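Figure-free illustration: sequence to structure, shown twice.
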Amino acid sequence: MFHVKHQYDVVVVGGGHAGIEAALASARMGCTTALVTMDPEAMGRMSCNPAIGGTAKGHLVREIDALGGEMGKIADATGIHFRMLNTSKGPAVWSPRSQNDREWYSREALRRVRTQPNLDILKGTLLDVHVENGSIKGVRIGNDSDVRCTALILCSGTFLNALMYTGHQTSEGGRYAEPSSLGLTEKFAALGFQTGRLKTGTPPRLDIHTIDFGDTEVQPPDENPVPFSFQNQTIGNRQIPMYLTHTNRQTHDILRTGFEDSPMFTGRIKGVGPRYCPSIEDKINRFADRERHQIFLEPEGYESELVYMNGFSSSLPAEIQEKALHTIPGLKRARMVRPGYAVEYDYFPSHQVQHTLETKLVRGLYFAGQIIGTSGYEEAAGQGIIAGINAALAVTRRDPFVVDRSEAYVGVMIDDLINRSIDEPYRIFTSRAEYRLALRQDNADNRLMRKGAALGLIPDSTLRRLDEKESRVKAAGALLESLRLSGREVREAFNGKWMGAVPESETLAGILRRPEVSMADILQVPRAREHEALQVLHTDREACVQIETQIKYEGYLRRQEEQIRRFKKNESMRIPPELDYNQIRSLSNEGREKLMRVKPVSIGQAMRVGGVTPADVSVLMIMLAR
């Protein structure tokens, strides 16, 4: 019997990075929202690396911020080490990353959730769901408290039937000192959901006072850190260094002695782990010819005595882990406070959700984060905000919100999850985005902020700053195309930087197209100093980056815009949802099976479904033409 004690428009289960974004988005869009979590003090806990962003992940964080999310703001507030990665490469792959104070991040996340109007925190565990006529009606939590809701967003992370492994030791738990969620997988399986098993892991934590940092390589932060949030202009926190060291042959030999006790190699762990972020034992097993592997030593906060041993994830016996790490430069006398461990957990394969992240089986039920086979705080947060937005839109009977893969990395990620077979934890990469030059981290505001404003998630003042920046970029770009220097002026302004013959005259834009010339160089040219439209750029580095990218990569950007137009055309060719692929005999057997499973909404999506051939797509286009 379902005895209602509370009623909300939206219930979010899980206080991790997905749950935070989902709950905040729903509440800010006017829906009464409850966030259910086993431990409110663990809100936003960084269960693995205390860092935000990184390659492609930094793009996601900036997109979340442009839509009105919170991860970038929390990272800016609690960051202790900021770096822009890949700056030696093209701007498409520049990615912001921050190392964060672990405890501070969690406290700040909880503070922001607690102070959000329309949002209540309910302490407890999800015990059951109430589904009626194929729609969510409510949930039962912790102390048999029944809560009615119109939408449910499940962000349970690595907790479903979770087991933790260190050598021969096995215990229940989704992460250190936190219990598993038992029985929930079976309840959803009874509703018809397919389930699977995945694995992740974490490295040892070390006592900072026992590390000899003099034997390591210092990794300094950026001198002028770039904030994640477009609503922040600067980072005010004191920045501290991180440290780099390496394993060696002795380390590898010791680790190999523990292979026979490894739960991964002996088959006790059935779930598949992330191939791109393997454990240290997996690395030395797969890459036996490598003499060393990088290990980053990352302090977990200003006052923390713990150091995160990035690159040494392991589920080997604790004594093997400790013996091996003592062979690494800087760690000869290091004390291991806590060994690394692996976590194996249940998930629901992601083809079972739509692009809104609503499930195909139950209306009003949304999945976000590791529950559908992804890894990473940023991937979870990106899914969380999309699920929260769409739950709120559904409750208020408005059209759904979908970002496609030509508009954002968030769109690339969700589209990949739906159309591809996920047999290992999914991680975002810049290589996954075919339009990555158009989807840079610096222009996430241009791409998405007006969408966030239309949803009520972006303040008017922030939108005005975007309008002003775009005006500056447009005016400065036009001026650079029109201002022309004589050959003499070019020689005087670029003495020592100019390669090859000097032209009789050239525009500043033409000069900027040369690889050895930067926007900073252009702003120092005497003729440029005469124009206020260029001088204001000295204090607007993001506008400078966008102008330089637009001019230097103009031809590539035009080509990508044409590719996006073709993509949009295919996306506009809609497939009726009631189409029965089993009745189309001309389809290949595999194509028919995959199309029935995914149920693509457009020809463009059908083309991206794994196992669907170009011949299958041609058959579909003929069917639609008829």
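We now fold a second protein in the same way, so the two outputs can be compared directly.
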Amino acid sequence: MFPKYDVIVVGAGHAGCEAAVAAANLGCKVLLATMNMQTIGQMSCNPAMGGVAKGQIVREVDALCGYSGIITDHTAVQFRMLNRSKGPAMWSPRAQSDRMQFAIKWRQMLEAHPNIDFWQEMVGGLLIKDGRACGVRTSMGLEIESETVVLTNGTFLNGIIHIGEKQFGGGRAGESAARGITEQLVGLGFEAGRMKTGTPPRLDGRSLDYSKMEIQDGDNPPGKFSYTDTPPLKNQLCCWSTYTNQKVHDTLRTGFDKSPMFNGRIQGIGPRYCPSIEDKIDRFSDKDRHQLFVEPEGRDTVEIYINGFSSSLPEDVQYKALRLVPGLENAKMFRPGYAIEYDYFPPTQLQTTLETNLVKNLFFAGQINGTTGYEEAACQGLMAGLNAALSVKNEAPLVLKRSEAYIGVLIDDLVNKGTEEPYRMFTSRAEYRILLRQDNADLRLTPIAHRLGLQGAAPRMERVQAKNRAVAEIDAFFRNASVNPDELNAYLQSVDSALIGQKTKLHNILLRPQVDIPGMAKVLPELARFLSAYEPEFVEMAEINIKYDGYIKKEEEMVSRMTRLEDLQLNADFDYASIHGLSIEARQKLAHTRPRTIGQASRISGVNPADVSVLLVHLGR
């Protein structure tokens, strides 16, 4: 009935969709198995992509020929660049999406790929032979063979939904949980755990009073995620914000005795940086209000997402508390918020390729690894799909360094440090964030996509080459061109910058923090004419490179020093127990993680600098 596939991807959320596309773009024959074809690419929680550090990840996925950025651009209803008041390393793109159109676009693009087949049914187990994954077994008993398997089960593995004292099995509202895979993997020797996440109530937008809220408009002009020629965003929708108050908090507290979080029914650990509303008022009892973001679910629906009000309290308590929030006094609820508890597998059981240590040709991606967020899931799916395909083709795996991408930081953190709570990416997790900006993801990663031979990489590479040329030409112009005081002093005075008394190079003036290229171009006609030949994105990048040149070079020197450790390989069957100079904890952690390099070993929790020195001596270094 079925051919033998190169890659089977289990689950069609953000991780599964990107895994399928990545493997297919390398020429592999892929089967995407999902319990429901109608929920492919579903936004289970907030209708948005990107955010602080997450936006950088989406651009990195796009630079590696993933689809998340393209689909976001096609279905966005609002775009904002966050942290513009800070340095460019902190700038993070974020877009509100049309939830229904987002899922529809994902399905359309997947179905348009000739290398992707689909099967709608729950996968209840894996086919394992001689320690290798070689296919899956469905709930109807069908066996489908493959060279590799990628598990992207999201919150569905033995998922339990909690609303107050009510609980029922499910991986998402209205969808059943997946059973069988956890039990099989545990039987094979895998360690499993439980985690928890949640979602807010959804409201009827017609019942809200927006005049009592603060409006949040998108950027003008709006940006985008993809480096390809996606359509510009038009007719942006508004978002709003409002605040809880003491009456809201007091009402919520009346349900604490029935809260599954506080009475012990939820055993899993929830996300530290996206707590439920009841967790906020319990942990931050000194705060008299918390901000809520009122976000539209799409252009053709009145459904509203209340960002910041995630809850698993009884639905009547949620309803009463919401109606005490300014602007929500007459709110009608579409459905209450809920918490969901699910199985995950500590990611220290993975290699940096996302292949499992215990079963060859089996890859994990997404929330099964203990992460939270669409973007974190998408990038893991991309990397798992690529490495599954590279394994099939007997080619070297792709492992991104911490200095190359936020994706590299995320996977390195997971594999070497593990996580006991849902992992979320932040800019602060990266040592080299001046190098890992959102504007240069294509320069960093598209050459890798082109080298791998990914479908669609060639035209992207042409644009990367054009961008490099443009940035170099703009830099040269600023280093060579000079300006007279009478041409620029009025502008310098308007931005509170010191006046110049003689002819000065444009490059030196641009180094001033108050000065920017658009401002200079308004008063220097020759500069404006020169820049008109270049895309605004190229000009902005050239400005960043000029202003932060010293910091960029300093980070590049740090990367060069660390690369020496990264290049020192460790044998996969290295006998750490025989090295008596290592601490007992280091021996145990190294034997468990099996790091590929000294650099990776140095980042494992419990491995200290003295242990690294012992390893270096043992290697003759």
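Summary for the second example: The CA atoms of residues 352 and 411 lie 6 Å apart.
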